[in-house]
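Researcher: Quick one. two chains, 596 residues in total.
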Amino acid sequence: MAAVQLVEVGPRDGLQNEDAVLSIDDKIELIERSVASGAKRIEAVSFVNPKRVPQMAGAEEVMAGVPRSDSVSYIGLVLNRRGLERALEARVDEVNVVVVATEEFSRRNQGCSVDEAVAAAHDIVRDARAAGVAGTVTIAAAFGCPFSGEVDPATVGELVARIAECEPAEIALADTIGVGVPAQVRRLSEVASRNAPNIPQRWHFHNTRNTGYANALTALEVGAHALDASIGGFGGCPFAPAATGNIASEDLIYAFDRSGVDTGVNMNVLVEAATWLGGALAKSIPAQLGRAGGFPVG
Amino acid sequence: MAAVQLVEVGPRDGLQNEDAVLSIDDKIELIERSVASGAKRIEAVSFVNPKRVPQMAGAEEVMAGVPRSDSVSYIGLVLNRRGLERALEARVDEVNVVVVATEEFSRRNQGCSVDEAVAAAHDIVRDARAAGVAGTVTIAAAFGCPFSGEVDPATVGELVARIAECEPAEIALADTIGVGVPAQVRRLSEVASRNAPNIPQRWHFHNTRNTGYANALTALEVGAHALDASIGGFGGCPFAPAATGNIASEDLIYAFDRSGVDTGVNMNVLVEAATWLGGALAKSIPAQLGRAGGFPVG
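Model:
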C-alpha cells in the first residue's frame, strides 16, 4: 500500500487568511483536533510579527498549551532569525522557512530580495539543525506569481539547487495562489528531483481554481513525501478574496482512502473538526465531504 | 498539442437537478451561450417524461429554437423508444442512452432491470443509426451506487462488452454520484478499452467530493475522446442535496488551457454564461473561475 504524510496546516495557513481571529484556546483546540485525527505533523504556529499578521498572534501561548508526544511533530513557520529564536524558545519540533520564487513577490511579501531570503533560509536551517530541530524550506509562488505571472520551472529548479546547499530535511513546493495544474507538478518534481535528488519533496496546494486535488494526487504519483492540507479547506487567498483556500484535509483523505493510500488520518474526525471550526470562524466550510458524506455510506 | 472534445451538458444535466425551472427562452439562451463559447457538442435536452422531470419539459420547443449549424452537434438524452421518436422528430444530431451499472439503481431510477436497459439501448442505438443519428450509451453509476455501494470494474467491463455489440458511436462512463477517484478512472479505462477497443470513451464526472477535476484530467491522460462538463458547475446531486454538481466547464477549460490541451472553447465566455445562469437560477455558482479569475491575469 502506498503511503504519504499529511501535514495539517489548518492551524497556520488555514487561519492566517481568515478575517476572524481565534482565541488561544480555540487555536489549541484546533491543534488537539488535528492530533485526534491522526495527523503526525501539524503546522501549528507562525512566528511572524503579530502586528503584520494578527491572526497568528500568541504563538508562544499556543505552543505552551498543545499536547506533547513523541508521535506528533509541531512545525512553526519562521521568516527570519528573530522568528527562529522564538520558535526554538517555544520548543517547536520543526521549522518551515519560506523563500519566494519571484523577485517582486519576495520584496512585497517578505520585504527582501530572493537572494537575501535564500541566505536567511540557509542560516535558519543550519541554526535549527544545530539546535536539534529539522528545517523545511518552502518555495512560495512556485506555480505562478500574482505580480509577475508565469514562473519558469527552470527558475524554481535553480532555487532548489541553492536551497539544497544547506541540506534541509525537506523542500516544499507551494502553489501559493492556486493557479497550478498537474502538468506543472510533473515538471517541478522533475527539476527538483534532478537538482536535489536526496531531499524529500513536500507539496502545498490551494484549490482556488479547482485544480488543487488533481495537483495533490499527481504529486503523490511522482513521489511526494508529504502533502499539506487544511481542515475544512479554510484559508482563502489574499489575491482573490472571494476564492477558497487550501485543499481540505478531509477531501484529500477521502481521495487517498479510496485510492488505497495510507495516511493514518481519520476522515470522519476531520469532518467533525471542520464543522467545529466553521462555527468558530462563523464561515461556511469550503470542503465538500461534510456536505456530501463519505462513500460507501456507513 | 493534445486535444479533447468538451461536451457541454449544462442545458441537460446542469438544469435537471436544480429546483428552479428555466423558461424555454432561457433554456435556448443557455444553449446559444454554449455555442458562443465554442463548444461543438451540447447535450441540449432530455426526452424523458416531463411529469417525472419538470426541469426538462419543453424539449421540442427548445430544439425548435436553437441555432443550427454544421459545426455544432446537439445531443438529446433518451431512455426508451418513445423518447427516441420524440428526439428524431425534434431533429437532434445525436442521442445519449443511459444504462445503469447496478440492478437496484436501474430499477429505482429507470424502472427496469439492467438487462432490459441494455436491450433498449441496443434498439435505440440501431434505430437512431438507421435514421442517421449517432448514439452514445452512458453507463451510469459506474464508479459507485447510492444503493448498493461499490461497483466492481469487472461488472462495468461486462456491460461495456454487451453495449459494444450494438456498435454505439461512443460509450460514456459516468460517476453519477461523484464518488470516483483517478485510480478508478484508470481501471475503468482499461476494462473498457479491452472490451470495446474501437469505441471512443466519453467521461462524465461530478465534483461532489472534490475529485471531479482530478478524474477528468486522468481520463484525458488515459485517452478520453470526450469529457462532459456543465457551465458554472450547476446540477447538484439528488443523493446529497447540499452537494455541488457536474464539474464546471470553465474550471475544466482553465486546467486544459494551462496544460496545453486544445478544446476550442473560450473560458471567459463560459464565465459570463455562468454569471448569467446563476442569475436565472437565483443560485450561487459552484465554479471557482468566476470568483478567482484566470491566470496569468489579462
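The longest helix of chain A spans residues 114-130.
Researcher: Thanks, that's what I needed.
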